[in-house]
Amino acid sequence: MRKWLLLLESGLLAGGLLLAFAVWQQKAALEQPLKLSEERLLEVPSGATPGGLLNRLQDEGLLRGSFWLRLYWRFNLSEQGMRSGEYRLEPGMTAVELLDLWQRGEVVQYNLTLVEGWNFRQVRAALARADKLEQSLAGLSDAELMARLGQPDAHPEGRFFPDTYRYVRGMSDFELLKQAHARLQQVLAEEWAERSPNLPYETPYEALIMASIIEKETGIPRERKQIAGVFVRRLEQGMLLQTDPTVIYGLGERYNGKLGRADLVAATPYNTYVQPGLPPTPIALPGREAINAALHPAEGRELYFVARGDGSHVFSETLEAHNQAVRDYQLKRRADYRSSPSPEALERSVQQDSEENP
To answer: Which of 149, 121, 147, 145 is nearest to 253 (CA)?
Structure first.
């Protein structure tokens, strides 16, 4: 019996020593700083496991004791999935801070901004330049792309909401575009539900077309509803819209930066100088403010407007007054004439609009 007791005591002592050794090893492994002299991004592909990553980091000499770190993850964080993407490793970071980073799934995020007034060609170019996105659209036509979105017969122009989107490495260009498409549908539905009565649109899509024209006509917030009012009244009275941005869109790559007389009679479906009503599709990405303006046009009697040259416009009720404004602001152009606002003027306008509408 005494011999068995001695063996039991020896076993317990040995077990205690092993446990203490394991605790000490694990504590040392967790508290060790990563061997980094500068910041580094750790790419974690889909399907990667913490154990595999820890072995990889040990092979690269960034840490030691991966066995103890794997045990710690298994017994403490095994229910936590591993989010793919990029993780930022910084000098001084400890192994336990790294595991905590993985547990939180705190991957590096990037921004991609789709700008109000862009056309779809510019959207695709921006997606292609985002090298952290997985590129999957390069070989697809616009029609094939829209088919992937579940709208095989839809024209892509104007169907994506301009905004800043966040993404992580490994996300695809199609996933981001799908978000922008869903966001546009949501915003359009919200604005359509709150629209003013008696508008000359039969569908939300027609309002979207109008919003895209408004977006291209002015970048000054307080003018959007005025311009919408002009276009709505022209539609209601059977007048041609006669808006240059639609002509420019219809010309496509033939547009050389200046509209001539021949351009204004060019036979395209988008030439609102000769084609009645709205063009067949939007001509750009409209923001929420432009969509709201199309659905809440300002009341009044103005039927014309002309650019002043500083980005703002002069509105007129009669053709006679409009022709005088054309003579004043178009035929006597200054050297610094602008049909769209300068960045400084736009900033002043936005500030004034926010002060008037807090």
So the answer is: 121
Phi, psi dihedrals of residue 321, rounded to the nearest 5°: -65, -35
CA nearest neighbour of 210 among 266, 195, 264: 195
Structure tokens at 54: 């820890």
User: What's the pLDDT at 282?
Assistant: 98
Contacts of 190 (CB under 8 A, 6+ apart): none
CA distance 247 to 266: 8
Residues 348, 354, 355, 357, Cα dihedral to 10°:
140
Q: Which two tokens stand for residue 302?
A: 């103005």
What is the residue type of 78?
S
209 and 281 in contact (C-beta within 8 Å)?
yes
H and E: helices and strands count for the chain: 14, 6
Residues 87, 107: contact at Cβ < 8 Å? yes
Using 50 as the pLDDT threshold, list the residues of the chain that sit under it.
334-358
The predicted pLDDT at position 334 comes to 46
Contacts of 260 (CB under 8 A, 6+ apart): none
Q: Is 354 exposed, middle or buried (0-12, 13-18, 19+ CB in 10 A)?
A: exposed
- What is residue 227's DSSP assignment? H
Q: Find the length of the chain.
A: 358
> How many C-beta neighbours within 10 Å does residue 129 have?
9
Task: Measure the N-to-C terminal CA separation of the chain; round to a whole number of Å.
Answer: 89
